[in-house]
Amino acid sequence: MPTPRFDVTTxxxxxxxxxVPPGQRLESAASVDLHPGGAEGNxxxxxxxxxxxxxxxxxxxxxxxxxxxxxxxxSSGVDLDGVVWSETGRVGSYYLEFSAPPRPIQVVYDRADxxxxxxxxxxxxxxxxxxxxxxxxxGITPAISPSCRAVVAELVQRARAAxxxxxxDINYRARLWTEAEACETLLPLVQGVDLLFCGQADAGRIxxxxxxxxxxxxxxxxxxxxxxVVTTFGADGAMAWDGQRLWHEPALPVQILDxxxxxxxxxxxxxHGWLNGSxxxxxxxxxxxxxxxxxxxxxxxxxxxxEVEMLLTRTTGGGLMR
Amino acid sequence: MPTPRFDVTTxxxxxxxxxVPPGQRLESAASVDLHPGGAEGNxxxxxxxxxxxxxxxxxxxxxxxxxxxxxxxxSSGVDLDGVVWSETGRVGSYYLEFSAPPRPIQVVYDRADxxxxxxxxxxxxxxxxxxxxxxxxxGITPAISPSCRAVVAELVQRARAAxxxxxxDINYRARLWTEAEACETLLPLVQGVDLLFCGQADAGRIxxxxxxxxxxxxxxxxxxxxxxVVTTFGADGAMAWDGQRLWHEPALPVQILDxxxxxxxxxxxxxHGWLNGSxxxxxxxxxxxxxxxxxxxxxxxxxxxxEVEMLLTRTTGGGLMR
Amino acid sequence: MPTPRFDVTTxxxxxxxxxVPPGQRLESAASVDLHPGGAEGNxxxxxxxxxxxxxxxxxxxxxxxxxxxxxxxxSSGVDLDGVVWSETGRVGSYYLEFSAPPRPIQVVYDRADxxxxxxxxxxxxxxxxxxxxxxxxxGITPAISPSCRAVVAELVQRARAAxxxxxxDINYRARLWTEAEACETLLPLVQGVDLLFCGQADAGRIxxxxxxxxxxxxxxxxxxxxxxVVTTFGADGAMAWDGQRLWHEPALPVQILDxxxxxxxxxxxxxHGWLNGSxxxxxxxxxxxxxxxxxxxxxxxxxxxxEVEMLLTRTTGGGLMR
Amino acid sequence: MPTPRFDVTTxxxxxxxxxVPPGQRLESAASVDLHPGGAEGNxxxxxxxxxxxxxxxxxxxxxxxxxxxxxxxxSSGVDLDGVVWSETGRVGSYYLEFSAPPRPIQVVYDRADxxxxxxxxxxxxxxxxxxxxxxxxxGITPAISPSCRAVVAELVQRARAAxxxxxxDINYRARLWTEAEACETLLPLVQGVDLLFCGQADAGRIxxxxxxxxxxxxxxxxxxxxxxVVTTFGADGAMAWDGQRLWHEPALPVQILDxxxxxxxxxxxxxHGWLNGSxxxxxxxxxxxxxxxxxxxxxxxxxxxxEVEMLLTRTTGGGLMR
Amino acid sequence: MPTPRFDVTTxxxxxxxxxVPPGQRLESAASVDLHPGGAEGNxxxxxxxxxxxxxxxxxxxxxxxxxxxxxxxxSSGVDLDGVVWSETGRVGSYYLEFSAPPRPIQVVYDRADxxxxxxxxxxxxxxxxxxxxxxxxxGITPAISPSCRAVVAELVQRARAAxxxxxxDINYRARLWTEAEACETLLPLVQGVDLLFCGQADAGRIxxxxxxxxxxxxxxxxxxxxxxVVTTFGADGAMAWDGQRLWHEPALPVQILDxxxxxxxxxxxxxHGWLNGSxxxxxxxxxxxxxxxxxxxxxxxxxxxxEVEMLLTRTTGGGLMR
Amino acid sequence: MPTPRFDVTTxxxxxxxxxVPPGQRLESAASVDLHPGGAEGNxxxxxxxxxxxxxxxxxxxxxxxxxxxxxxxxSSGVDLDGVVWSETGRVGSYYLEFSAPPRPIQVVYDRADxxxxxxxxxxxxxxxxxxxxxxxxxGITPAISPSCRAVVAELVQRARAAxxxxxxDINYRARLWTEAEACETLLPLVQGVDLLFCGQADAGRIxxxxxxxxxxxxxxxxxxxxxxVVTTFGADGAMAWDGQRLWHEPALPVQILDxxxxxxxxxxxxxHGWLNGSxxxxxxxxxxxxxxxxxxxxxxxxxxxxEVEMLLTRTTGGGLMR
Lengths: 322, 322, 322, 322, 322, 322
Description:
Six copies of one chain form a homohexamer.
Chain A: E1 6-11, E2 15-19, E3 31-37, H1 39-49, E4 54-57, E5 59-61, H2 64-75, E6 84-86, E7 93-97, E8 106-110, H3 126-130, E9 132-138, H4 141-144, H5 146-162, E10 166-169, H6 179-190, E11 195-197, H7 200-207, H8 213-224, E12 229-232, E13 238-241, E14 246-249, H9 262-275, H10 279-294, H11 305-312, E15 319-320
Parallel strand pairs in A: 1-4, 1-9, 2-7, 5-6, 9-10, 10-11, 11-12
Antiparallel strand pairs in A: 2-3, 7-8, 12-13, 13-14, 14-15
């Protein structure tokens, strides 16, 4: 069997993020900083920075905002041949005030009716998308629109048929759909995936799992038959369960500038390790990448393999629990 | 008859403008400057800065972007009691690269489906809107959506019924509708208005008028039975026709930083003069305000009565032509 | 009796604050940020942002700096009809280096001889100032100049005569007068006020009160016969005494960007609660507003009723002590 | 014969440019803007933005500055597989004050001993470099160092041997070598090239050609036996001679922000047309690209095929002269 | 006779200039740029940058704003031993909007009651001030305050007594005093000075001289018995008259960013030439320095002897007229 | 014996530091901030800000970057008469990403082959350098180049011959030479110096001293016969040993913005106290200056004697230990 063209392919929406400088309020801001952001694109960039061969598929308008997004991803080395370009339509965006305790992070979404939301299954080059060692998707895409739901459903079905491993990050977005809708849609999609990512809060909201941590991971594995389950516990780090072994990796001490993108960075790290054959190593990569993105403005981590290796030596707290 | 509460009331959409710093391209921009902008709001601010009592009516979401717009207009003294607030919906926006010859100005609109576009006639406080010496509207609002078209139609009909003078700026937007649609919609609306504003290009596109300048103004007056007609000729200034007399006012020499808002500033100046009883004076105010806004970043002119009076003394080139 | 036109009216000086970007020293700064700031104006803006009907009275020069101040206050919805405009004179200013431990906050005042300092009693529209549910003043204004002292004295006397409730924030400024002068001037002014605000340090300097906290509040009430007394204890929050009950509200955990304006925000919150009939609720509003302003650059808090209500649910530590 | 992998390959040095904001002097600057810049990289980016398949070869240190350069070129779509990475060494840089008449543009070069200057012939992947429809080099590279001179000599010799067309831009740099050295080195290299670019001043300094314009182009063709010669005449535009026909294209009217990169943009445009089979068309592309880069900060033009086509319609002044 | 310690000493006020970024209005500015500025300090810096030994005397408060001024002048090499430091008092300031046609330059002065205005004759170290080849003063200082007037009067009288040459720039400031006051004060002071600078407008206002240019210079010389007279004619350059010969030097073509400081730069250039023994050469230095400062933000020119010499070769239009 | 002309003279390299704004990565930075930095220059500036008479000697190119460095040092009052200017050559530079845990501070040095590295003994004005109460050098300079090593060797030898006290900061730089080279070179140079500064890590690397703190200082004194030894222990402050007494001064609580320059600030403080005759006082000055520089961007501390005295009162934790 020939080596697949890509290590990881992914599909989803990237938006323009417009963030207010610290100490200002959006309603009196005179300028905002622009960064592209979107869960699957964030994962793609992190993996490409680690020298993985990565492709990202989406739908974008052929205008400066569409190109701003591809300029950014291309700069990190992400393959964009599968992007579907449209002569009309808009790019979704979101305005951001960083968290400044006692204020939580504040986001004004303006993402409805984007080009990506109008993505259709027949626009996708499935062969390229499946010419990969792993397909990564998230629960955001099916929440965006019915056609996006159809795209993800077809992608999952085709990957299963072709025997391509799947990675799925639940990523529940309460502003896009209800917990019931999410549960109904996502549960079939994640059955038997190779990697399942689910944050502690989402485990409760979508899977009804709470309480003791090991139980959450076991419960996720039982409900989904996922081969590997990774759950994040905020400042307490992340845990992974492969059906037999349980690992925990505490979060690195970090000076947080920008909270967005940490979950995606963690997923990228885990995928990186999984591709190397080690979930435990992936968890360590994940907490390093998550710490790095928290120190950078923007959702997409900028790093190098050398830097990550150097920081890996600092993740001494975690390891096999059981 | 009691003095009306306002000198001018107006209704329309204000958007968030996101402009790229000079010398950069939007597709590689790291930050953008924020200014609110929209034809009727621009007129309202200019008149309020000249100490006119002005109200602006629109529909906005109750979020930081909606408040950014009202903060700005309130800061200039525009009355906002008639703004309709919505708990959902979005603010329209547009991204801007300034003109840098040989490049023309470049705008990426992202205004579809805004809160303002969903404005309905039954949301408007008609009594307040008509408690004024003049109602000002533009041809942009009926182009935004069917419900906005209904709002403007009802406003014009109610103003006529109440004997409230009307000011109408044609402002054809080719990205929103065709010339034929615009013509069909606008022609009935502008019949008999007290002030009709129409740029030279729009006179050709909507009214089929071109060629010699005086003929354009006379043609507009004939087709619309407008009591006063004002036409702008770019760097050649503006002309006004009151059915008997023709005035011309050349543009002031100006160092242009930002081309947007000049037409609205001119309309505000003309309205200011008209309220004082002099179309000719209004034309002079108009070219002064237009010159001022061209030297400022943003669509809404920031000035004082004193400054405008001081600059009025420089408008020596124009006057009565016939 | 008709409803008063305003919920709160206030009178005082607002200055231009010029602050150095963090990490730089004023003596080598290449630029400074501009914000208007002044105790009574800060209170006015906070209350206006909570949708209170507020008027602010002062004296300003009719120049861009005077207008910078009114633009800002008008933007928040503060009524400015009572501002006295002068064709000559200056706006006071102060240069600010933020606190960067071990350095304390450093302020270079340049406020002498301002337009506000030349405010005279006969320039004030007393009827408007008293057409309110509460008049709020501070101990800064009588310290500015003899004529300002006369203005405050007349305001207090007229309010008492008209039965309008008074709020007074001691706000001792050591650079403007001595403790003895302040004591002699302020003591008669604050007799019997409805709301007395006095920081812990000022209680010692002006009223000779120190030691155990409850004793300070009781002592202030005894010396002033104020109906309600509020004392702030820095990071330990604030306490209120209404002659019978004592409340304490701890400060919210906060990431401080800019220390100025917290005391004024607290006063605004207390006034907001008092207008609702609850000193205890006001104390909770106060600590929320104080926390918010500490996370924003500038002395004037930008918030909404919704945001404050959301944060109110976090003030769980305080309540009735006795 | 198979289609070559690339349309154009090029080899040379890209440096970090550090430019002072307009109106400031470098000796008192507090910050500088960073842009990568270098003649061959500039050409590569312009062609990649026009959707040409382009590769750029150079030698860079594996540090953030090396990556800054590749991030930028990759963002535009330039292939970088041929870049030689070094674990040590530096990136050349140059500090820039823009021209502000009466001051000419002022550049402080700090480029000696860069990684690129240490490029050796045996480090180059010649097969990839020659798998192209055209190789483009400039007279800067042989001036940098003896080893770079050897690299260019070998490249020219290999291209000739393989029948790969050559494009050569003279680009004399007086700070790197003398006119005599340049002449002696460059003359053999440019013999028989398919495209020769030579500015008016360099024609005088290196080839001893001055006076009437047509004569300069004919003289260049005679001395070099180049198949096509293109000469730039600053604000007077550019001329091209293919041995039989002479074309002239005037410069577009332009508002200059940043003078650097115009010659490289012109060369890119000419190459683009040449690849399409039309030198005349290439000259028109060239003046459009040159005008565009003069309105943008940075040496590397950011544009799209659509924008260039739109502006092409404005190049009406030129054409076939003879 | 020993060589004097300084080439030029000067005395006057330097203020903090706060300028609004281009395209913004002061009344809505969020930040301002800081530069020190003041006629005599500007001359001192320009001469120090040309390697002249220069001392500047003034009175400043010992606070960060006072030090901002001395940091700046010291950085250029101006001797500050004669500065009188005060533990109290303020630095004068002025807010600036750059000229943006049709708007003229707009300045809000806030300079009253500065430390410099309280300078007293007995605070000055006269011996140091007179240990120089030339004393330079302007008509601004006597306009600031009576004590400053006394200081300048005593300086002029002492210089005459000691045989130290005097340079005087009329520099009438209409906001500080009337033409009549200025005339009465300045006429005695400038009698017999070695260098008299007087702009065309001031020649009319203070000396009643207008009309033909040569007549203005001769008239100034007659009324003042100045040994050398220099008059500036804006964009038409400057003329000099030494009682026998008349020179004219046209202004250099220049792209103006910031209009302030050109007159002071011209004076510095003339003084530099005069110290070299050539008024004609000084006029050429003057127009070069004036052109340079117009391209830089700030009132104080930053240049080098090399740069000035290089630009001198461009002043080819002027020379001896008579 | 006459009073020496200077309190302290020093010799070394100052470079241009280019730092990335917090939250950005160098490889995607659009701009960098410029500050001059270099161990001996940092010490010189700190002492000059404390009103010491200080001279700094180095070698710089006569270009804007060379002048940027001297402008900065001159602004603080450092005497620069001994600077050797070269018409060619470069200024060293280093690019900086601030520490953002978990990332350590990251520096890209580009300092090879600088003008300073080519400094020769015969270029130095030894008389001026020795006309001082103390000569201060560091272990960086001999590491830069053989000629710099010769310069420092000659300086140390001449100072000893002339009986001028010496201060030496070990400052081992692993990127410039090996520990063995450093040890071999530095050990003879520091024999018998009056002040020896050595960080805890360098004590281990160069002198093989570790373990208990007092032992390190005693060991340094024994190996070097230095009269006074000062060792820094990071956040644990610094200790001093004069052969008889041992002092410890804890670090001040500080909010760190920029970690560079703290060691040099400490050395400056110790020297300041030593000049006053008190090593203990110097240690207290040192921890105050170190705390101050950590709150400022740049390597060179900006302060005043008053500020340092005010903060001295906060250094209450330390004192004589033995």
